[in-house]
Design goal:
- With 260 residues, the chain is of the alpha/beta class.
- It contains 13 helices and eight strands.
- The protein has helices at residues 13-25, 37-45, 47-54, 64-74, 83-97, 108-121, 140-152, 166-174, 188-192, 201-205, 209-216, 218-245, 247-256, and strands spanning 2-3, 6-7, 30-35, 58-61, 101-105, 129-131, 157-161, 181-184.
- Strands 4-3-8-7-5-6 form a six-stranded parallel sheet, sandwiched between helices. Strands 1-2 form a two-stranded antiparallel sheet.
- Helix 2 (37-45) crosses helix 3 (47-54), helix 2 packs across helix 12 (218-245) and helix 12 (218-245) packs across helix 13 (247-256).
- It starts with a strand and ends with a helix.
Length: 260
Amino acid sequence: MQLINFQLSRYSFHFLVNEIFDLSEKKKTNYICVANVHMFIEAQNDLAFLKIINEADLVTPDGKPLCLALKWLYGISQERAAGMDLLPVLLQESERKKVKVGFYGYTEEGLEVVKQKCQKLYPNLIEPLFISPPFRTLSQKEQEEYITQMNKAEIELLFVALGCPKQEKWMASMKGQIQATMIGIGGALPVFAGLQKRAPNWMQDASLEWLFRLSQEPKRLFKRYFITNSLFIYLIVKEKFKLSIFPRHKKSVLQNSRTL
């Protein structure tokens, strides 16, 4: 399905998890985007990035506002599939299915905490691969070494935590090179590790999770949320107005949407 020009996978949470493992079992290279308002706005401002999102094998609706927009604009009810909910479920299922996982991105200290938590919560999980690349542009040699390391380890499900839009661009560039299913989890990793708190359920249900994150990192996130949230509201209201004037446009959007 499509939110304006942004493709989203129309799956229930449970079915989506099964689909992710179906992809990983094929032992082929593919990538999955976990989409929120920030990603949506980045895609509106960068058509090359929009192309990366729309060519992903799956695009899950991480942000509740995306689900609400689908309902308000097109009458489509869509279950949220947040990265913070997906990550522990995917790890649990990987333990049960004996799927080899890896983590790429985040700090060395943070990954050590993730490693300890995996050992505690999923003792039978095949030992994951942890890679914390330097926070700079990698040389061709460094990149090739990481690719070789991941392929040699026979990773089936790779969790990528480089932040949006860097992680999505990286996954797209690695398609055909890394023989694994890559999924961008971004901010879900520090929450999983217990290094950041998650918003209470009532804030999640009210689409206010962004406000909780803002309260934790006001200096870093204030400008981003002020701009992206304002632009998102503007674009959604603009689309609603367009649909009210051209009702056939709604039918066209639904017909051209890719149901995944």
